[in-house]
Design goal:
- By secondary structure, the chain is α/β, with parallel strands linked by helices.
- 19% of the residues lie in helices and 17% in strands.
- A hairpin with a 4-residue loop joins β7 and β8.
């Protein structure tokens, strides 16, 4: 009844109160565990982790871990400076050669951040 008139034989409303075409936006470096449900129109920030069996009803900030029904903030994956560094570096946009050369730095965020010159390559 609150949806697009094409769904029903008769619609009593002059406005579509339900928008079935809202896009979900999922950033880079995101891990969505099994059986997670993401509501229409939600934005998942870069580096976020969605726990298994979660129902995401609100936007998720970059490098944040959420879980539950509904999904709630659990913790940040890294401290604020590290998150800022990762978002600025945008390693996911680097060439395959760059990633292969620097992949060992991904094992430890402190090592990655200490190589700030990588940000300028």
């Amino acid at each position: 009844m609150f949806s697009d008139s094409s769904y029903f034989k008769k619609n009593f409303f002059d406005k579509d109160y339900h928008n079935p075409y809202r896009q979900v936006s999922i950033g880079n470096d995101v891990w969505i565990c099994s059986n997670a449900v993401i509501a229409d129109g939600i934005s998942i920030g870069d580096g976020a982790v969605i726990a298994a069996n979660s129902v995401v009803t609100k936007d998720v900030e970059p490098y944040t871990i959420v879980g539950g029904v509904p999904a709630k903030f659990i913790r940040k994956r890294f401290d604020d400076n590290e998150i800022e560094f990762l978002l600025k570096t945008k390693w996911w946009d680097k060439s395959l050669e760059w990633i292969e050369k620097n992949a060992n730095l991904f094992l430890n965020i402190k090592d990655f951040v200490s190589q700030d010159h990588l940000n300028h390559e």
